[in-house]
Specification:
Layout lengths: L2 E7 L27 H9 L9 E5 L3 H10 L6 E5 L5 H15 L4 E6 L3 E2 L2 H16 L3 E6 L10 E8 L2 E11 L4 H10 L2 E11 H11 L1 H12 L2 E3 L2 E3 L2 H5 L6 H6 L5 E6 L3 E2 L4 H6 L9 E3 L2 E4 L5 E4 L4 E4 L4 E5 L4 E5 L6 H10 L11 E3 L2 E8 L3 E8 L7 E3 L3 E9 L2 E5 L2 E5 L4 E4 L5 E4 L6 E9 L8 E4 L6
Parallel strand pairs: 1-2, 1-4, 2-3, 3-11, 6-12, 14-16, 15-17, 16-18
Antiparallel strand pairs: 4-9, 5-13, 6-9, 7-8, 7-9, 8-12, 10-11, 18-19, 20-21, 21-22, 22-29, 23-30, 24-27, 24-29, 25-26, 25-28
Helix pairs in contact: 3-6, 3-7, 6-7
């Protein structure tokens, strides 16, 4: 029995702003451990018996970050599928099923969101083992989290009769929308209800069969998008036009709430979807005052709070039940009871055409990263890092000149017809209109300072002649 983990790495995680942003969402951040949430999700199932390399579904703009994070943990995915645009989970799972079915007609899929925390991995592994038999037999299995409290932020699953020969797997009797507090308390007392986790196990063929039955237009769009998919470096790109026509819907609404094949396996695994700052606080060990503190923080008279300093010294005095999160360009301060309103900040930033919901000050590129240091009317200063063996595109600018100063490492610089090596404390001037390229031929990261000067300094003033990453 071959099991194929399918990792869904879409979404922007706006409720964890200012850390989670559109270009660097929560699944690509190290929120709980030293690894990112995507890395922890992959490592959680890595090396299990019969478990195949993961198939990752992500957005186009995250492709290089996803590939780099897999390289960092030494995992080579079976594939990375690129969605031209987000169409929710049902199409994402469908294209993954089509991809796997072409590899293995009997493929058994374990569908996992990339941004969940599971603290009891041994119990999770046992739950997967319990789900395997009904999934192999054609059921669409969902994992229902054993509730620990009346929770209004999750949907619920009511289980029905137990499957023959499997007292720990049940037919799904009903999916229930997020309840109010009184109804949630009734669910806990009833004992038949589980939280809807968004994790699934089924045969690729079984899911596709039910999708064609209940959502034929969606199935048709996904099949066309996969039929015309094409390879881009190590990525698989879905056909843009076909996927754009695909209806957007979750796997729950599109299939699970309609099918007669739904089965639930209750799972007590220390699960959280980390959907808010208070939820993130709950899945980390507190200190003696109930605080979760990370970074350079001074806390006096502070209780039951999360304080996170990413770059600067942060002092918090005489407060309880608060969330304080500092980044280079934004600070969030709220009480725990109001964390769901963080999304209102993101809406405000969007409405006012600001960028603090899109990027951090440090911007990642497939070759490394850059970060603005200073800027004025006709100049801009950046810190640039180029990873070992990587290189920027061969390019030119119409409106700006550049001056590069190497801080550490070795740079190979193409400047018109001249190609030379620069080492620490050496510099070079790139005139306006000169074709140029920056490379790191060494074994350590290259760090340099770039000073731009000219009438226009926008990132769109780039004409690329050659690019190993095949960007436009």
């Amino acid at each position: 029995m071959n099991v194929y983990p399918v990792i869904l790495s879409g979404g922007s995680g706006t409720r964890l702003w200012p850390l989670s942003r559109s270009v660097l969402p929560k699944q690509l951040l190290p929120l709980v451990s030293g690894n990112t949430m995507l890395q922890d999700t992959v490592l959680r199932v890595n090396g299990w018996p019969d478990m195949q390399p993961p198939l990752i579904v992500c957005g186009n703009e995250h492709r290089f970050l996803v590939a780099e994070q897999m390289r960092q943990i030494g995992v080579e995915p079976s594939g990375i599928l690129l969605e031209p645009e987000g169409r929710n989970t049902a199409p994402a799972v469908a294209v993954a099923a089509l991809y796997l079915q072409a590899v293995d007609p009997d493929a058994l899929m374990l569908v996992l969101p990339a941004d969940h925390v599971i603290q009891d991995v041994a119990s999770f592994q046992r739950a997967v083992a319990l789900a395997a038999a009904p999934a192999e037999a054609g059921a669409l299995v969902t994992f229902g989290i054993v509730p620990t409290r009346p929770e209004t932020g999750y949907g619920y699953i009511r289980r029905g009769s137990a499957l023959d020969g499997n007292a720990q797997a049940y037919m799904v009797e009903e999916f229930v929308e997020k309840p109010d507090l009184a109804k949630a308390a009734q669910f806990i007392d009833d004992g038949r209800y589980s939280w809807n986790s968004g994790m699934f196990m089924f045969r690729a063929s079984a899911y596709l069969g039910e999708l064609r039955r209940w959502q034929p237009a969606m199935a048709d769009s996904c099949e066309k998008a996969m039929a015309s998919a094409y390879k881009d470096m190590t990525f698989c790109r879905l056909d843009e036009a076909a996927y754009a026509k695909c209806p957007s819907d979750s796997i729950d609404y599109a299939v699970m709430e309609r099918t007669a094949l739904a089965v639930v396996v209750p799972a007590d695994i220390g699960w959280s979807d980390v959907g808010s700052w208070s939820a993130l606080s709950d899945v980390q060990p507190p200190d003696e005052n109930g605080n979760v503190i990370r970074g350079d923080v001074y806390a006096e008279g502070v209780k039951n709070s999360l304080v996170r300093a990413e770059n600067r010294f942060v002092a918090v005095i005489g407060m309880e039940n608060v969330i304080v999160v500092e980044t280079k360009d934004a600070v969030l301060i709220t009480c725990k009871e109001e964390v769901q309103r963080v999304k209102n900040v993101v809406d405000y930033l969007k409405k006012n055409n600001r960028c603090e919901h899109l990027n951090h000050t440090k911007v990642y590129r497939p070759w490394g990263s850059y970060e603005p240091i200073d800027a004025g009317g006709r100049f801009q200063v950046k810190r640039i890092t180029v990873n070992p063996g990587e290189k920027l595109s061969l390019q030119m600018h119409h409106h700006r000149a550049e001056h590069w100063v190497v801080v550490t490492g070795t740079a190979r610089v193409t400047n018109g017809e001249d190609v030379r090596l620069l080492t620490e404390n050496e510099s070079i001037y790139i005139p306006i209109g000169n074709t140029h390229r920056l490379e790191n031929p060494g074994m350590v990261p290259l760090h340099l300072i770039e000073v731009q000067s000219g009438s226009y300094l926008g990132e769109d003033d780039i004409v690329r002649f050659d690019d190993v990453y095949k960007r436009a």
